Amino acid sequence: MSGKKAVYIYDTTLRDGAQGEGVHFSVKDKMLYLAKIMETGVHYIEAGWPGSNPKDDEFFNRIASSETIGSGMSKIAAFGSTCRVGEEPENSEILSNLLSSCAPAVTIFGKAWKLHVKEVLRTDHRENWRMIRESVRFLSAGGKEVFFDAEHFFDGFADDPDFALACLEAALEGGATGVVLCDTNGGAFPDEIRKGVLAAGKAFVPRYLGIHAHNDGGMAVANSLTAVQAGANQIQGSWNGFGERCGNANLSTLVPWLQLKLGYQVLGAETVNDLSHLSRYVAELANYPFDEKQPFVGKSAFAHKAGMHVDAVIKNHKTFEHIDPSAVGNERRILVSEQSGKANLCQRMKKFQPEITKDDPLVEKAMDRIKQAEKEGFQYDTAEGSLDLLLLDIMGLLRRPFVLEDYHVWSDPLRGELDSVAVVKVRVGDRSEHIAGEGDGPVHALDKALRRTLSVFFPIIEESELSDYKVRVIDGSHGTGATVRVVVETRWGLRSWGTVGVATNILRASAMALLDALYIVILSQSEGKTG
Amino acid sequence: MSGKKAVYIYDTTLRDGAQGEGVHFSVKDKMLYLAKIMETGVHYIEAGWPGSNPKDDEFFNRIASSETIGSGMSKIAAFGSTCRVGEEPENSEILSNLLSSCAPAVTIFGKAWKLHVKEVLRTDHRENWRMIRESVRFLSAGGKEVFFDAEHFFDGFADDPDFALACLEAALEGGATGVVLCDTNGGAFPDEIRKGVLAAGKAFVPRYLGIHAHNDGGMAVANSLTAVQAGANQIQGSWNGFGERCGNANLSTLVPWLQLKLGYQVLGAETVNDLSHLSRYVAELANYPFDEKQPFVGKSAFAHKAGMHVDAVIKNHKTFEHIDPSAVGNERRILVSEQSGKANLCQRMKKFQPEITKDDPLVEKAMDRIKQAEKEGFQYDTAEGSLDLLLLDIMGLLRRPFVLEDYHVWSDPLRGELDSVAVVKVRVGDRSEHIAGEGDGPVHALDKALRRTLSVFFPIIEESELSDYKVRVIDGSHGTGATVRVVVETRWGLRSWGTVGVATNILRASAMALLDALYIVILSQSEGKTG
């Protein structure tokens, strides 16, 4: 359509990415991940290895029974390996699990380096080629679109080009839609990648010629781009570069390189424009700290500290920025005198006071309050409920419907269930209530006591429910005395919103977030009545 | 001596590195840094910009009065800029500060891109060349070894090669020992770097042809290596890639690439063999969290999780490692998780029982226990301390040195500091202690009470410290009643390890992780005594 050359993204965040140390997705997280990534136009999403562990099985079952998943733009891929040495594909448990999975695409890896055939498989070359060819054929015949991951292709190619290429040939003879050249150990140099890809592209013309690079030499992005320039048209990678050891090729870096700097067609403009947010969302799901020094999408990526740089960048942003930060949903930050974000903020304040303009001193004031709060550890991008309350407060429009006068919590963790008790004192007008609640753990007890007490005054809050609760230690190096941030998500009918609290005491941080959530329910109700 | 081609390292960690967000060196830190780096054989160390701020001035004064500094193998360099538009070098404060500094080498930057000459300097090309030539000449005549940092050389070269090369020429006419081609905005692609370096190397033969790359495109390492292969013989970079925005070229990655993989002579073998330690030491001085996913030197760099990888790496480490981890002072780690196989586990169990084999029923039993624990929410890849305790337990080798008989926690979050109290009862043999502790928040109180009580029996635990504390809500959809996982990291002398606890009550989960951490301190001590 655009006349630009296309590069197809094969997203292995949920499979190879999840192999990264410290990266953890629950099955629920994975479902959320799919729902989000399916909107982006990523071409293939590798969901896991069916049959390898109960969690992956549960995930594939959930995908199979989900109506929405099939309707997205992305294809689900299942991952696995060829049959074993001496085994017929029909007898391979691995292959039969792949075949019976709900995924329309399947990727299997096989050996492309003689060292592995000899020392790991302990078989001969012909048998290796047979395993590849017949495994691919078996899956193809079963109706799957098959990709062959040529493990250690570049090491294998350096060692014996004919052998390595013959492995690709075996896969294509078996009917593979694509062959993927893997730098499995991640130690290759761009020159080696170029040679290998050129040789593969000269010998064969598969529908997809893929590259799968690891970052053990800090070269995963450079190697992937080199491969594309040498003729590869598919990239396997993960958001934020999650993955085993030093990680996989970072899609958060690769996509802007390809689409914004090198002129390829990769994903829709809306996705690229939202990349900073998307990358953060994925890190949040994986509960992995987001790398703020990350190219393009990190908070530091366009942060200018040196005075001379700041001066120049204000004269012309090209002087010290290699791309416009807004092209990837990021923003310039002037570390000395920050002035970004005002437009966004003003836009949000218009919800409550439509006539407000960017130059209104209230916008400046709100900006200062937010900056101060962020310094203390608050974050509003996942807590827009708390942000709205803060803005209403600054505009003089907030009337808190109740006051939490006091609360205490006792916990006796070895007692088993309902091991904690909280007592809460709430005042509405001149009437107070003092009510206790029991729970599993102190936060649960506090939450229950708060809701019990408030529902005396505001029965409506029983209609709302807490749909998510997250805790993050902001600076763990202070140990158990560290500040924590609690983010709570509340659902009420069709609406849902996040609220945030920050304190060294997790109970206080939780109370702040819970109170904000309940304020919104109560205020929205009275709004509904008057409006 | 070795016949290998030399590459000279110019270390800008203390100057450009210190511009990185979150990187902070005190003057004392900088002195420690110099002492350490001088031992490594790094050729030039950029110490700062004399005259630009009081901290840098103090540092240069300390260097000048230090007897040891001059005796090292490295040369100190001072950083600054050319004289201003229309200014004579004799009248330049910047240049006179550089000249009077104690540094034998000086690096000044100047413009090499017409855009900057026009829009930032607002002068003409001739004046730009004069500023460069005369500034270099002034410093050279004053006895300094002078490097010229050609700012934005690659953008300037792409825009107008003749203009950019003429800037280098001006510096060489002025007597520069070296010219350094800078990718200041960090957005260049290796092909552009190659073209620029080849052109400079063809036009001139300076003593040093340097490369200064930034990581805004994730290419700083690839670009630096490409420059070396195109003829550059000096690299400016920083340890751990510290630096403005996305950082500078990472010396911790570049040095092993050059010396171990590409056959150049860079630093002494002892330095390279100690690189993991050195990189951590620098991060420690800068008070910046060490990136454990870093190539070569990170803790994850040789950490294997997938079962098949582990199996193969044990057969032959080359199968899944691009270099031998010990060559950079790092080590292989076998991570245990539900995705990994028996081989990983057995390898780990050998630490305690060297004769154990993969078929031992204890391995199967351990596997089952781990899988069960992971289903409950435990994770062992960041909690190897707890894993070791679990394995010792299964092998019948664990004797817990104490029992936590009971504990209670009270919290009054609105009280302010020390708002929580914990009481802990511990038994060792037939002696019990019942001690209270106060803290900021309930977890902190519990931690303090535990340590106070246990140190009565085991004074050694006061030598250990908590270096990190993390909480994750495992399934937030149960709201505040969700299960949480707590991971604690403990440091004791040179050792550090993670431990984990899981429960619906965050205090219970924290207690589990803290207890495991303390068991290890106590057990390691008695091991030391008997062993």
Automatic annotation (TrEMBL), chains A, B:
<keyword id="KW-0012">Acyltransferase</keyword>
<keyword id="KW-0412">Isoleucine biosynthesis</keyword>
<keyword id="KW-0808">Transferase</keyword>
<protein>
    <recommendedName>
        <fullName>Citramalate synthase</fullName>
        <ecNumber>2.3.3.21</ecNumber>
    </recommendedName>
</protein>
<dbReference type="InterPro" id="IPR000891">
    <property type="entry name" value="PYR_CT"/>
</dbReference>
<keyword id="KW-0100">Branched-chain amino acid biosynthesis</keyword>
<dbReference type="InterPro" id="IPR013709">
    <property type="entry name" value="2-isopropylmalate_synth_dimer"/>
</dbReference>
<feature type="domain" description="Pyruvate carboxyltransferase">
    <location>
        <begin position="7"/>
        <end position="279"/>
    </location>
</feature>
<dbReference type="Pfam" id="PF08502">
    <property type="entry name" value="LeuA_dimer"/>
</dbReference>
<dbReference type="GO" id="GO:0009097">
    <property type="term" value="P:isoleucine biosynthetic process"/>
</dbReference>
<dbReference type="GO" id="GO:0009098">
    <property type="term" value="P:L-leucine biosynthetic process"/>
</dbReference>
<keyword id="KW-0028">Amino-acid biosynthesis</keyword>
<dbReference type="InterPro" id="IPR036230">
    <property type="entry name" value="LeuA_allosteric_dom_sf"/>
</dbReference>
<comment type="pathway">
    <text>Amino-acid biosynthesis; L-isoleucine biosynthesis; 2-oxobutanoate from pyruvate: step 1/3.</text>
</comment>
<dbReference type="InterPro" id="IPR005675">
    <property type="entry name" value="Citramal_synthase"/>
</dbReference>
<comment type="similarity">
    <text>Belongs to the alpha-IPM synthase/homocitrate synthase family.</text>
</comment>
<dbReference type="InterPro" id="IPR013785">
    <property type="entry name" value="Aldolase_TIM"/>
</dbReference>
<dbReference type="Pfam" id="PF00682">
    <property type="entry name" value="HMGL-like"/>
</dbReference>
<dbReference type="InterPro" id="IPR054691">
    <property type="entry name" value="LeuA/HCS_post-cat"/>
</dbReference>
<dbReference type="GO" id="GO:0043714">
    <property type="term" value="F:(R)-citramalate synthase activity"/>
</dbReference>
<dbReference type="Pfam" id="PF22617">
    <property type="entry name" value="HCS_D2"/>
</dbReference>
<dbReference type="InterPro" id="IPR002034">
    <property type="entry name" value="AIPM/Hcit_synth_CS"/>
</dbReference>
<dbReference type="GO" id="GO:0003852">
    <property type="term" value="F:2-isopropylmalate synthase activity"/>
</dbReference>
